[in-house]
Structure formats: C-alpha cells, structure tokens
Design a protein that fits this description.
Low-confidence stretches: 1-5
Shape: globular
Helix content: 25-40%
Radius of gyration: 18 Å
Largest sheet: 11 strands, mixed
Number of strands: 11
Distance between the termini: 22 Å
Amino acid sequence: MKKIDNFFHHDKWLSKILKKKTYSILNPSISMINYPKKIDFAYIKVEKNKKKLLKFFGKEKFKKINSNITFEKKIKFKKKPLIKIRSANNSDNKKVQVISSKNLTDSRFNVDKLIKNKESKLIKKEWVKNFFLKKRGNALHIIEIKNKIVGFVLLIFKKNFLIIDLIAIDKKFQNKGLGKKLIDYIEFFYFKKYKKIIVGTQSNNIQSLKFYKKTGFKKIKEDVIFHKHFK
C-alpha cells in the first residue's frame, strides 16, 4: 500500500482488481476528512467499543458492511490427523484458487452489493495466488482425499503466534470434520514453534463462528467494517 498521509493509504492491489482508486483508512480519528483528489472506494475497520468514531463515519456516509470477529487459541500438542495433509507446491495453484473463489463467500466483498460477484471471486483467487507468487503468507497446507484437493489453510508467521489468513473446505466435503483436522494439523506441526493461533471471520458467517467456538477458539476483538463508494 502506498502511503498518502496519516489517514489514507492507497491500496494498489485492490485498486487493480476492482478497477477503482481504492484507499484504506488507518489510524482513524474524529476530524475533518480531506479525501484524496481521485478516490472511488474507501474502507475502514473501527473497534466496536469506539462509539463516537463509529457515529462519525456513519455521518460521513460510510456504510456498515459487517463486523470482523477476531479469535485466538493457545496451541496444544495434538496427534497428527489420520488424513493426508501436505505443504502446497506450485502445481496446486489453480486448484487452490478455485476452492478459494467458490467456497469463501461470506467476506465483506460478498456482502457489499456494490461489488460484483465476479470481483469478489477474483479477490479470493488473487489473494491465495499471491502465496504462490511469494507475495503473501508463509505456509499453505493442503488437505486431500483420494489425491483430490478438498481444502487448504494459508498461514502468516509472527514472532510467537500464527495467523490463519485464509481457510477453506470444498462445499462438497464440508461438515465432515475436515476443518477441525486442519486446525489439529496446525497444532501438531507448529506446537514447538508458536504459542497461539489468531484468526478473523465475519459476523455474518454463522457457520464459521460456530466452528471456531467448537474448536476451542475464544473471541478477543470485534471491528466494524465500513465501505464508502464515491461513484
């Protein structure tokens, strides 16, 4: 992202996908907003407990899309799941992109009716594609059944914790415990290296919320997501 000032940051990656001048707002405060001269779309995350800030952006005609719920889980030793899970290689790129675009359908981009469905799918494709281009993430693990890729998890490494950047299971194989097996595998594989797992999901994704609570994650934060379209 290219820094414009302390308020607006040009999101080149999202601008390219949406074909709109897109900006994120960082370090928000209640003050007069000086918008960039050329801007088509802006987004911001605001902590749920910052009521005055939420009200301020509402008055600025930013639309609440949903909330991002952040969970954490302490990593405990787990036995290796009895299913094939491996690290991704370049030949997995296209198949993982398909799973990402077809099964991650509850993001803020899907909820925003002014963003086309094909654009939402492209965002998820390009997101995971960036791993194979060595532009995003540190590890990507694949889960297979009968040599068919049925899911994956994309991870980002921090000093003493992991972030689940993306996790998806093919809809044909959901509700079979495969998501839990990916979480168990993370704990098995990274037990000696990291202390906890951090993950975010959307407030409208009820299935995901239930999944993280069921697998031992605890809610630690909630941010309200706002979008504003200028054209």
